[in-house]
Write a structure and sequence with these properties.
alpha+beta; TATA-Binding Protein; 5 strands
Amino acid sequence: MDPKKMWRIALPLLAFVTTVGCAAIQAGGQTAQAGGPMGGRVMAMSKYPFDETVSRLKQAIEGQNMMVVLVADHQMMFSMVGMQTRGMLGIEFFHPRYGKTIVENDAAAGIEIPLRLVVMEGDMGTMLSYYKPSYVFGKYPKLKALGGELDVVLNKIEAAVAK
């Protein structure tokens, strides 16, 4: 299969799965917690509208000396398959200093980077979702401390918009 065609199919599917999971949690009023059914997933409501949430998150990421590596417009990707959604973006971010630690301690964990979060606009407002780094890196014994360190960074980023 042509790689471009594969990505045209895979990316909207990934966005769809993320959206359905977030919508189910949003509708049920549940909060995802490490070790719970969502396995380390954090869901937080923003106190700001979608565009302002995205802007504040990018500023908060940079304020934590991280770099925004990629912004994926899930809303646009859905429109490519005839599906209309509200605002939905994936933001990937990281810093090479953490990558260095990962490669030096367990290069197999390189698949876990960059870190990512999704911002979605819904009936109840704007929500962000991400996996706690301690959960993501917890399966790599030499990287548990790094996961905890990055949890603190993500908590600060989330605090920039959370209710």
